[in-house]
Amino acid sequence: DRGSMANVPIDEWHDYQTTIRFSGEMANVSETNSLSLYLGLYSDVDTIDLDRFELQLAPAAAFEGRSCDTLLINGQGDLLINNNNNSSDDDDRAHAYPFYATGGVLTTVAVNTNTHDDGPPPAGSTASHYFRSALRTSTWSSILSQDVAPECLSKASIYSFSAYVRVVLVVDSPTNTAAREVQFSLEAGGSTSVVATCPPISSADNNTWVHCTGNILLTEEHEGTDSSARLTTRVLGDDTSVVDLMDVSLNYSA
Description:
The protein has 254 residues and is mainly β. 0% of the residues lie in helices and 27% in strands. A five-stranded antiparallel sheet has the order 1-2-9-4-7, with no helix packed on it. It has a four-stranded antiparallel sheet with strand order 3-8-5-6, with no helix packed on it. The chain is globular, with a radius of gyration of 19 Å.
């Protein structure tokens, strides 16, 4: 698992989270005699500082609650990785798992902190955290993904999608306030189906959250796939905007 890549500005601290999956083969002592974790550099850097470097088992709650009625887990980004998910003094330890990004950096941020000049949360949300995507390098990167159970994808089933999204900043051109479209898709059986495309969002909208909704009718293309299936998220035609996502769900409707 190579993790993800990102262009990180120099002389700034960054909260970086990623997920490492150990396959059955990797966990088999007859097949594996050592595992190495390394940080790879792709530019000339003399010194890198690391603080609070941790490798921890995902919280038990990340493995519970998944069903064919609720395809996504941790949609509110509030699974804590300390104290059995009951941390009262360390809320910033919330983790995005089992969500992940295929490019850039995906982190969780507590709602109404001053760290990112939050602004008010959306009126329809009760989430205590949201997801932040930053430092991307490709328009084809998925800023928010999660694997879903292929066995749940039955022909003629309808799933309803909901999420709050906002565009915070276009990093390489802060004065560029052109609206961006954020698109959510379901990849399964070798096909990609658009689930929802958010109304155009601009960083000039003063931290305004946009509510994105949509429905997907599953067909024979989705049913019975023996390969993986996942939700993916792209910012269309854009590879630099910082994007926040909150209250992400994909639930059975009919």
